[in-house]
Amino acid sequence: MSEIPVRFYREVDGSAPVLDWLVELSQKDRQAFLKCREALGRLATVGHELRRPQAHLLRDGIHELRVRVGRANYRILYFFYGHEAAVLAHSLTKEQRVPPTEIDKALERKRRFEADPARHTYEEDS
Question: Across-strand partners of 64?
Fold first, then answer.
């Protein structure tokens, strides 16, 4: 197995969209939050080797981490920054497929991150 650090993408204003979503999810649906946290742990442990049904490549280097709780499908979109880290860029609850506009948001965040990783990596004290 190839462990890899998991990082949260940070916007210029200091917010971390996936982290904010997880905090909200922990308050609304504790079971879903715990399953998402477990899936993030698997991503950290397995890294690039994580495959279906837990993860799936969508397009252009954007992957989805897949969590199902009852009828709800939770998705955390991420990308790999080389072999250094998996960067959590976007999250959503979906019905069927991840909408292309949501993948586009993750791609834009990926472009920003790659241009300036230090600025777009969430740190607890930021």
Answer: 56, 77
Classify residue 95 by its DSSP letter. Answer: S
H or E stretch covering 122 = none
Q: Could you report the per-residue pLDDT of 24-64, keeping only the tens digit for each?
A: 999 999 999 999 999 999 999 999 999 999 999 999 999 99
Q: Which two tokens stand for residue 42?
A: 């698997």
Average pLDDT of span 109-113: 96
The pLDDT of residue 3 is: 84
Structure tokens of 70?
A: 């009852």
Distance CA 79, CA 86 (A): 6
Residue 70 zone, left/alpha/beta (φ > 0; ψ -120 to 50; rest): left
Residue that is written with structure tokens 């791609």 in the block? 107
DSSP letter for 48, please: G
Which amino acid, one-letter code, is at 104? D
Q: For the whole model, what pTM was predicted?
A: 0.93
